[in-house]
Design a protein that fits this description.
alpha/beta, Rossmann fold, six-stranded antiparallel β-sheet, 8 helices, 11 strands, 42% helix
């Protein structure tokens, strides 16, 4: 996670800070959310136009004022800073203002989570960031974990499509609009959000970011849930076959059959309830 940022550039006026804050408000990108939380509070204004350019940045207009937030190229600036730092550049009315440099903080339990996932899966980190965190990630992640940086949205999508064509089942975890295509293409797409009420890209599940370290338990619970469903179908099938045999051979009175029929559904409900509670206690 990008937990803090330092601004370096020309001081922004009060109106520019207000527009910057309101432009960031419309984006669910992790950098946008972090920067939005860092900036001081300003009145909410209605933007005349807002557009998020995938892999590039944000652009908004308000009363003829133009604000661009994103990569150096996007805002029309040649960045001469470190190529290994994560930065967000700002321009107002096509005049370059400066940049925010972000510093990472890794979530508690990340290393343990990846080591658990590695036992049954091949892990790959596809990041749109540069290689600035390469050494830190090598220390945190299991050996032989693939680390691929500077990935554009289409690169992530192509990577997943390639491995699916090789017969692999892919679970993708992403936290930004840049991951929308990859999340949709994956066999299972999980979007991580700091605020689950904020828009998330197309996915199969939304995971509260504070629960990310429990991802392996959620996967185990999902697999166990599928097994319970299969056993429920099997139990129901056996129950009905036995009942059908007695009904066809005339060994069941109509009144008894009428009583036993709803018991079939009740028995399945009881079985699934007990099995689900048992699995839940094991995961605690």
């Amino acid at each position: 996670d990008k937990s803090s940022a330092v601004y370096n550039g020309i001081a922004l006026s009060s109106s520019e800070e207000q527009m910057l804050k309101n432009t960031l408000r419309g984006s669910n990108h992790p950098l946008s959310r972090t920067l939005y939380d860092i900036l001081k509070e300003h009145d909410i204004v209605t933007l005349d136009r807002f557009e998020e350019h995938l892999g590039q940045g944000l652009e908004a207009t308000h009363r003829a004022n133009i604000m661009k937030i994103g990569s150096a190229t996007f805002v029309g600036h040649k960045d001469e800073g470190s190529a290994l730092s994560t930065t967000v550049h700002i321009s107002s009315n096509n005049i370059y203002k400066g940049k925010f440099t972000f510093y990472n903080k890794y979530r508690k339990g990340l290393s343990k989570l990846f080591n658990q996932l590695k036992k049954e899966n091949d892990l790959v980190v596809l990041s749109g960031d540069n290689e600035g965190e390469l050494e830190n990630l090598k220390k945190l992640l299991p050996t032989k974990t693939k680390l691929i940086f500077n990935q554009k949205p289409e690169d992530k999508l192509e990577y997943i499509e390639y491995h699916q064509s090789e017969g692999a089942k892919v679970l993708m975890v992403g936290d930004g609009l840049n991951d929308a295509g990859a999340l949709a293409q994956s066999d299972v797409g999980i979007a991580i959000s700091e605020n689950i009420n904020v828009f998330s890209p197309a996915c199969d599940a939304i995971l509260d970011a504070s629960k990310f370290n429990l991802l392996d338990r959620f996967i185990v619970a999902s697999k166990s849930g599928i097994r319970i469903i299969k056993w429920s179908f099997a139990l129901s099938f056996v129950y009905n076959i036995v009942g059908l045999y007695f009904a066809v051979t005339g060994q069941l009175a109509p009144v008894v059959a009428a009583i036993l029929m709803p018991l079939s559904s009740i028995s399945i409900v009881i079985f699934t309830t007990l099995a689900t509670n048992f699995i839940g206690r094991r995961l605690e």
